[in-house]
């Protein structure tokens, strides 16, 4: 579905991505592991078009999308849920969610359907839909952020560290939600530092270090890999 | 106390304000006061325009005074040199404001933050230079004299102060109504998303350039129409209208009233206009009073009078409400003010 070939990207002058090649098949849940500053967000921003790749080729279902505008990519079904949630704190939960459906704004019936589905997936948001997003707890805010991304009806959903700053129990809920989104047919690319929790729901994983993909493997191989365990699981 | 607060933020308050606007000529002590109020309304319309691009969309535009002058000159030159009547010239001023806004916008909005502000500062200065130096078109430093006033209908004669006052009041109400519609719509929330974060807005699929240009064109159209009204009442304009000081005046009105709020532009413009009137005897020295006041205001009330009021009221309601949930809910009921215009 998504294919990167030798992608380079510069961020504020230095090379933040160096020859990244990766492949995400439809229906997969692929985890991108990496420490702070390894290039996870840069890679996501490059795929979603916020950053321009300085070399290489990105294609979506065989079609070249290198250098396309972010809005065009969202139209094409690539939706990013940014790191740190980034909600509109003073807007209500409902308005936050509706903004996520921006590209489908003319399809009211479809938006209503997606909204019902999101509220069904996160019932707590239904209770709080008229509350200001900023008044919610961290976990609930993350649900709004994921729900907002789902409103764009992604074919490929990119989640950038959804577990950041959340309590372990909440992380578990969030990851269960991610897994169920994936099972319903949305391809997921998940960037995480929390390797153990992420790998448990993953199909495959890549490891990124200093802007390079240094390792790739399926869930079992990654969980069993000594280097991965040492670096990201701490056991 | 809470009743007063709730009333100030309620829709009924808008009706009270409108009634006050309608009744003002009856209670004004002189025709001069009505004239000053009409001028203040015209500037308020321009401030509403600036609020779209700078308040809601977050892009500091320093060419606003320039577009205001373009609107005034459009009416001045079309009526004086080309013999147009006021109303067609008025519409032309709006169209010219929109078209020039579009052309400047598609270039300048490629820049971000300070760079956009500096670019528009230069645009404003270029507009001033063009008006001052291009004598064949603009009459240069001589200015444009005996501009056609708005044609009245029936017994209504807009060269008289009171009918003109009501004409301007009509346009002001129209301007505010349109902005309140926009700010509550998806377009308004799109502008707000852009102000909060370019990147976030883009990840939602918002076409950044298209929406920024739309906000810019709306704001320059407002500026052009406000300038056109000014030309219709003062009937003499010179290149000083395009000087940067007018841009800074408009920004001051916006900051004092409350940037990004619905009623801020009106509150700021009226307040400063009348304070200026009150201290007119100080002439240029009044800036010695205004300067420090503005500094204090920006430090302690960065959201201006209306913004600070809404934040304060929101907090008060939140702390008073029995359960936390209902508190945030109450706050949200007012999101039309506290949120969308926040």
From TrEMBL, chain A:
Keywords: Amino-acid transport, ATP-binding, Nucleotide-binding, Transport. PANTHER family: HIGH-AFFINITY BRANCHED-CHAIN AMINO ACID TRANSPORT ATP-BINDING PROTEIN LIVF. Belongs to the ABC transporter superfamily. SUPFAM superfamilies: P-loop containing nucleoside triphosphate hydrolases (SSF52540). This is ABC transporter ATP-binding protein. The lineage of its organism: Bacteria, Pseudomonadati, Pseudomonadota, Gammaproteobacteria, Oceanospirillales. It comes from Alloalcanivorax marinus. It comes from the Bacteria. GO terms for molecular function: ATP binding; ATP hydrolysis activity; branched-chain amino acid transmembrane transporter activity. It holds the Pfam family ABC_tran. InterPro entries: AAA+_ATPase, ABC_transporter-like_ATP-bd, ABC_transporter-like_CS, BCAA_Transport_ATP-bd_LivF, P-loop_NTPase. SMART domains: AAA (SM00382). Residues 2-235 form the ABC transporter domain.
From TrEMBL, chain B:
One of its GO terms (molecular function) is branched-chain amino acid transmembrane transporter activity. Its main location: membrane. Keywords: Cell membrane, Membrane, Transmembrane, Transmembrane helix. It is a multi-pass membrane protein. Residues 330-342 have a biased composition (Basic and acidic residues). The chain crosses the membrane at residues 7-28, 34-53, 60-80, 86-107, 114-131, 162-179, 213-238, 250-275, 287-312. It holds the Pfam family BPD_transp_2. It is found in: Cell inner membrane. One of its GO terms (cellular component) is plasma membrane. InterPro entries: ABC_transp_permease (IPR001851), LivM-like (IPR043428). Residues 323-342 are annotated as: Disordered. This is Branched-chain amino acid ABC transporter permease.
């Amino acid at each position: 579905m998504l294919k990167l070939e030798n992608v380079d990207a510069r961020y504020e002058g230095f090379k933040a991505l160096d020859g990244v090649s990766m492949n995400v098949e439809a229906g997969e849940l692929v985890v991108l592991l990496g420490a702070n500053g390894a290039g996870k967000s840069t890679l996501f921003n490059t795929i979603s078009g916020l950053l321009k790749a300085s070399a290489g080729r990105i294609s979506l279902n065989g079609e070249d999308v290198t250098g396309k505008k972010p809005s065009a990519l969202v139209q094409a079904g690539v939706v990013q849920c940014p790191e740190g949630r980034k909600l509109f704190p003073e807007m209500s939960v409902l308005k936050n969610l509706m903004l996520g459906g921006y590209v489908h704004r003319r399809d009211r019936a479809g938006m209503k359907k997606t909204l019902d589905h999101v509220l069904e997936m996160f019932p707590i948001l239904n209770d709080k839909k008229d509350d200001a997003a900023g008044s919610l707890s961290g976990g609930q805010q993350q649900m709004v952020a994921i729900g907002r991304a789902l409103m764009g009806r992604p074919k490929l959903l990119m989640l950038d560290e959804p577990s950041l700053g959340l309590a372990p129990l909440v992380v578990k809920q969030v990851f269960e939600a991610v897994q169920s989104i994936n099972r319903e047919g949305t391809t997921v690319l998940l960037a995480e530092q929390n390797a153990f929790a992420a790998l448990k729901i993953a199909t495959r994983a890549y490891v990124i270090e200093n802007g390079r993909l240094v390792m790739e493997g399926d869930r079992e191989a990654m969980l069993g890999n000594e280097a991965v365990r040492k670096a990201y699981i701490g056991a | 106390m809470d009743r007063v607060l709730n009333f100030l933020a309620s829709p009924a308050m808008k009706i009270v304000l409108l009634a006050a606007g309608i009744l003002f000529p009856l209670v004004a002590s002189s025709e001069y006061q009505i004239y000053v109020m009409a001028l203040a309304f015209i500037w308020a319309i321009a401030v509403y325009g600036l609020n779209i691009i700078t308040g809601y969309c977050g892009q500091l535009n320093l060419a606003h005074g320039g577009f205001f002058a373009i609107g005034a000159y459009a009416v001045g030159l079309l009526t004086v040199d080309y013999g147009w009547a006021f109303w067609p010239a008025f519409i032309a001023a709006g169209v010219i404001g929109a078209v020039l806004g579009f052309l400047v916008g598609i270039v300048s909005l490629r820049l971000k933050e300070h760079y956009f502000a500096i670019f528009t500062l230069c645009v404003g200065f270029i507009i001033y230079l063009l008006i001052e130096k291009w004598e064949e078109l603009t009459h240069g430093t001589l200015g444009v004299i005996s501009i056609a006033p708005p044609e009245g209908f029936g017994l209504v004669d807009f060269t008289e102060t009171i009918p003109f006052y009501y004409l301007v009041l009509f346009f002001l109400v129209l301007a505010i109504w349109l902005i309140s519609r926009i700010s509550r719509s998806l377009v308004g929330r799109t502008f707000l998303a852009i102000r909060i974060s370019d990147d976030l807005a883009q990840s939602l699929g918002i076409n950044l350039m298209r929406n920024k240009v739309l906000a810019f064109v709306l704001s320059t159209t407002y500026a052009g129409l406000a300038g056109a009204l000014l030309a219709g009442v003062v009937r003499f304009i010179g290149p000083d209208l395009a000087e940067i000081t007018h841009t800074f005046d408009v920004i001051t009105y916006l900051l004092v009233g409350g940037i990004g709020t619905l009623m801020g532009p009106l509150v700021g413009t009226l307040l400063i206009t009348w304070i200026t009137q009150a201290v007119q005897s100080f002439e240029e020295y009044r800036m010695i009073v205004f300067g420090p006041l503005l500094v204090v205001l920006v430090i302690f009330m960065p959201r201006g009078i209306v913004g600070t009021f809404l934040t304060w009221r929101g907090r008060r309601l939140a702390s008073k409400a029995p359960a936390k949930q209902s508190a945030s809910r109450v706050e949200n009921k007012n999101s039309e003010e506290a949120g969308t215009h926040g």
